Amino acid sequence: MKISTITATLIVAVLCLTSINTYSQVDVGLLTDDEFGPPVKDPQLLVPFLKGKLWGYTDVNKRMIIEPKFDKAGFFLRSTSLYFANGVYKGKNVLIYEDGKFVNNDYADGNYILDGGLLGASRAATKEIQKDFNLDKDGLHGYTYDTISGILTSSYYYNRFIRLIEKGKQAIAENKYHKVGLVEPSGKVIIPFEYDEFIGAAGGRRELLILQKNRKQGVVDFTGKVVLPFEYDEIKMVNTYGTRLLLTKYTSTSKESILVSAAFKKVFDGVLTDASFDDKFIMGAKDGKYGYLNDAGEIVIPFIYKQALLFGASPAIEGFALVTNMKGISYFINEKGIEYYSEK
User: Fold this and answer.
1) Does the keyword Signal apply (predicted)?
2) Taking a C-beta distance cutoff of 8 angstroms, is the pair 158, 143 a contact?
3) Which of 75, 54, 47 is nearest to 343 (CA)?
4) Residue 291 and residue 304 in contact, taking contact as beta carbons nearer than 8 Å
């Protein structure tokens, strides 16, 4: 008996569907974590190491893992199951693997590659703000704050409330003329509304207000007394406790900073130029050479470099920084000042 082509095709289709349906009903059980194989271990941290003019990789203790042979090299990156670094080998972009093997990378954009050198506060916790004309009395402009509902009701005199102090007993606010001051609920003004911007609260108890006036910054206490004159271009807290401040003035050629306590006493004897900071260190130059301080003003990495970047700043990763020595050679250091570099 002959079967037409159409009929044969239908039979095959039915058999396939039956097979699929049968397979879908098989109870394969639940897979346990063990059946996926051992967990993937974190790869060894490899640090780009410059030896002479070529880059290789060492472990954190400077034990050579990948011999120097690359023109340029960056830190290793983790992408799903891959662990690789961008580099340049004999003028060509490559991907470098942790065993030292590499392949051409035609899509590199250079973002992770070291290119050989460096070029020279808690808001008002309110759920709702309402306005009330009745809070304007006898020339005073008051407000009320309900700590349970979180509703703040204010005079129309205020544009916004920046920070509430002691559950609303005082408030840093901005008035309708865009000036900042400190006021009590009755409308009594503690710090006059003559400042342009609230920068932050400093001191161990946050008892000092950093404010800006006429493009200069200074510090006022909660009695309204100016305790640091308004002559600085920037005042920044360099630790989470607010007990260390970096006071900065701009000159026509540089940015000069001093590190002081919340009592405005110097904790580092000297002026830093081009200073910046992260959550661990303050980086800057003294007498034309860069180094690193902690927030106690102690030198943790000496001032010996021609240029430097903050720890964790690209192209480095957390725990490392890119520096340039006085010969103009750039390489990486760790937070203990260990240099991943040798001339030969």
Assistant:
1) yes
2) yes
3) 54
4) yes
In whole angstroms, give the CA distance from residue 159 to residue 66: 61
- 93 found inside a domain: yes
The CATH number given to whatever domain includes residue 344 is 2.40.10
Same domain, 272 and 344: yes
C-alpha 92/C-alpha 108 separation (Å) is 10
Indicate whether 89 and 133 sit together in one domain. Answer: no
| CB-based contacts of 124-129 (< 8 A; 24+ apart in sequence) | 124/152, 124/161, 124/162, 124/163, 124/164, 124/171, 125/150, 125/164, 126/150, 126/151, 126/152, 126/161, 126/164, 127/151, 128/152, 129/153, 129/154, 129/160, 129/161
Count: domains in the chain: 3
* Boundary (domain end) residue, out of 171, 195, 219: 195
More confident residue, 136 or 38: 136
Is 312 within 8 Å of 278 (Cβ atoms)? yes
Question: What are the tens digits of pLDDT across the range 195-250?
Answer: 999 999 999 999 999 999 999 999 999 999 999 999 999 999 999 889 999 999 99
Residues 277 and 335 in one domain: yes
Alpha carbon distances (Å) from 305 to 118, 197, 291, 308, 325: 11, 37, 7, 7, 5
Backbone angles phi, psi at 13, to 5 degrees: -65, -45
| 70 domain-assigned | yes
Percent of the chain with pLDDT over 90: 77
80: domain range?
Answer: 49-104
pLDDT, one tens digit per residue, over 58-90 is: 999 999 999 999 999 999 988 777 889 999 999
99: in domain = yes
Assess contact for 72 and 87: CB atoms under 8 A: yes
At residue 115 the predicted structure's pLDDT band, cuts being 50, 70 and 90, is very low
Q: Is residue 83 part of a domain?
A: yes
Identify the DSSP state of 8. Answer: H
pTM, rounded to two decimals? 0.78
Last residue of a domain, one of 138, 162, 195: 195
